[in-house]
Design goal:
single chain, mainly alpha, 2 domains, glycosyltransferase, cell division
């Protein structure tokens, strides 16, 4: 008699898949709309209005191939390659420091036709590492020393390497996501609260106020119009774009703020272009898609048949959710400006590829049941 299988394949979460595909499609279209004017009028981009569309489209295709590949691979196999993932991630985070800085930050490894951003890998590497460790040690996470503290140090190690690249925003995302994973994994609230009160929050304030450009960003956040021609310029232009879009927007491709008013509008501030061209209706639609994605991710985590799957699902969902929340908050001046892209929508090959790989893992978790 054949032994019963603990896990069997079922249909993947179609709603999650459809939501992500829709976000990717909207992202490719909006990258073209936000970038076409500056690309057409710049010799740097060969006066090709489709310059960024081609790159984003290619990255989207690669990412989707990776998504459907990862959806077919049992997520438990990630345990066997966790060590390899750690080594590769650390090496890449160190190698990137060898290359010249771009806009004051060392975040990209230039590869022919592609710029690899190791911090995009680091976000998910931490999820894989913590998920395996917490599942292996079980309820030991309830002890502050050594388990909880060790997990925190591991997260801080990756966040620290990313911070060295002058990327405080993604380092913050890593720490926030790590704390969420540890909370779901069984860590005591008093331990998390003490770490936040005595460590994470004070360090965040210190790192923010110890660097000049971060201080100016905080000043601009408090009153962007006072600094509209300097520190708060980008925020003011973003708010003007959102305001001029009204309820229905000016129409796809009709943005005025993308015409050299918002610097690189296809990157972190693409949501403001969406607001200008598609209006409040478009913005609400995008936010609803992210809410659906988050709801499906939580549902997958709750229905997972083992702790490892639950923690992976929580971590992947949290990475996407935290970035989306921060990006929208920055664009609407609900928090100081940070360099966090809008998942699946902002221009960036590394971002879209690794986010789609992570969604592939999430879909595989959704397909496993008892």
């Amino acid at each position: 008699m054949a032994k019963p299988k603990l896990f069997q394949k079922v249909e993947v979460d179609f709603i999650l898949l459809a939501t992500v595909l829709l976000l990717v499609a909207i992202g490719v279209v909006m990258v073209y709309s936000a970038s076409s004017y500056s690309a057409l009028n710049s010799s740097q981009y060969k006066n090709d209005d489709m310059f960024f569309l081609k790159k984003q489209g290619f990255a989207a295709v690669v990412g989707l191939i990776a998504l459907f590949t990862m959806e077919k691979i049992d997520y438990h196999k990630l345990k066997k390659v966790t060590g390899i993932i750690i080594v590769i991630t650390v090496i890449l985070l160190l190698v990137v420091l060898m290359f010249p800085a771009i806009n004051g930050a060392k975040r990209w490894i230039p590869i022919p036709g592609f710029n690899l951003q190791p911090s995009e890998i680091a976000k998910y590497a931490v999820v894989v590492v913590l998920a395996k460790a917490i599942e292996k040690n079980g309820n030991r996470i309830k002890k502050f020393f050594p388990n909880f503290l060790v997990y925190l140090v591991v997260a801080a190690f990756f966040a620290g390497l990313v911070y060295i690249e002058h990327n405080l925003s993604i380092a913050t995302v890593i720490m926030v996501v790590s704390i969420i994973i540890m909370f779901v994994g069984g860590a005591k609230i008093k331990h998390i609260a003490s770490v936040l009160a005595c460590g994470v929050i004070p360090l965040g304030i210190f790192f923010t106020m110890s660097v000049g450009y971060r201080q100016t960003r905080f000043l601009a956040f408090q009153n962007p119009w006072k600094y509209s021609q300097s520190y708060g310029y980008q925020t003011c232009q973003s708010l003007l774009a959102l305001g001029s879009g009204g309820l229905k927007g000016l129409g796809l491709g009709q943005s005025r703020q993308k015409c050299y008013y918002i610097p690189e509008p296809y990157n972190d501030f693409i949501f403001s272009i969406i607001g200008e061209e598609l209006g409040l209706i478009g913005c609400v639609f995008i936010i609803m898609l992210f809410l659906i994605l988050i709801q499906r991710g939580i549902r997958i985590a709750m229905r997972s048949k083992d702790m490892y799957g639950t923690l992976l699902a929580v971590g992947i969902t949290s990475v996407i959710a935290v970035q989306a929340i921060i990006n929208v908050a920055v664009v609407t001046n609900s928090m100081p400006v940070t360099g966090v892209p809008l998942p699946f929508i902002s221009y960036g090959g590394s971002s879209i590829v690794f986010n789609l790989i992570a969604v592939g893992v999430l879909l595989n978790i959704s397909s496993q049941t008892s």
